[in-house]
Amino acid sequence: MFLTGTGAACFARAQYIMIKPDGVQRGLVGSIIGRFEQRGYQLKGLKLFQASEELLRQHYKDLTEKKFFPSLLEYMLSGPVCCMVWEGTNAVKVGRQMLGATNPQESNPGTIRGDFALDFPGGLRVVRGGFVGYFRGYLPRRARTSPGLPRREVRWE
Ligand code: UDP
Ligand code: MG
């Protein structure tokens, strides 16, 4: 599910995108996939996955000290996420633009968060409340700076 380590590093032109539990529950998977296809990106991996606490702690390891981390963890455990790898020109940068700002209230209209989200999943109300941001783009830095890395198959954990 979550791309880690060498698996991710093989995709310099690829971006890992995750539709978080509320996006799956609200039936937004199709619309979101459609946006990336429309833009010209190619779907290289897709999986519906229930994350474990251990994996989430690893995935969000840079955020574990944040105040909102416990509620983010609770929220992320509340249902399956949809994991995707999108490949194409400048996928990391453009993918990020398509998602919009991390804070959905600062996301421009026309971005995914700007069109579908209003609040953080970090707020305790969110698990029950609805509108949240659902994405986390992730690729290790060395993948972004090493476009010559050989491509291998996507390895989902
Ligand atoms: N998050 C939150 N409150 C904040 C900042 C972040 O709940 O003040 C959550 C939000 O769900 C976000 C996730 O933590 O998607 C990961 O944060 P990151 O900075 O990696 O943002 P992203 O890559 O999702 O834009
Ligand atoms: Mg992030």
Descriptive notes:
- The chain contains 9 helices and 3 strands, in the order αβααβααβαααα.
- A 3-stranded antiparallel β-sheet has the order 1-3-2.
- The protein is globular.
- Helices cover 37% and strands 13% of the residues.
- Mean pLDDT is 73; it is low at 3-12 and 122-157.
- It has 157 residues and is an alpha+beta fold.
- Residues 136-137 line the site of magnesium ion (MG).
Summarize the biggest pleated sheet: 3 strands, antiparallel
The computed structural class is alpha+beta
Heteromolecules bound: uridine-5'-diphosphate, magnesium ion
Radius of gyration: 15 Å
Report the helical percentage.
Answer: 25-40%
- How do the helices and strands follow one another from N- to C-terminus? HEHHEHHEHHHH
Chain-averaged pLDDT: 73
Count of DSSP H/I helices:
9
Q: DSSP strand (E) fraction?
A: 5-15%
Number of strands: 3
**Order of strands across the biggest sheet?**
1-3-2
Distance between the termini: 5 Å
Unreliable segments (pLDDT under 50, ≥5 consecutive)?
Answer: 3-12, 122-157
**Overall form:** globular
What are the main properties of this structure?
157 residues, alpha+beta, three-stranded antiparallel sheet, 9 helices, 3 strands, 37% helix, 13% strand, globular, disordered N terminus, disordered C terminus, binds uridine-5'-diphosphate, binds magnesium ion
Task: Give me a quick take on this structure.
The chain has 157 residues and is an alpha+beta fold. Helices cover 37% and strands 13% of the residues.
Fold blueprint:
Blueprint: H1 5-9, E1 14-19, H2 21-25, H3 29-39, E2 42-49, H4 53-59, H5 69-76, E3 81-87, H6 91-99, H7 112-116, H8 126-129, H9 141-144
Antiparallel strand pairs: 1-3, 2-3
Residues 136-137 line the site of magnesium ion.
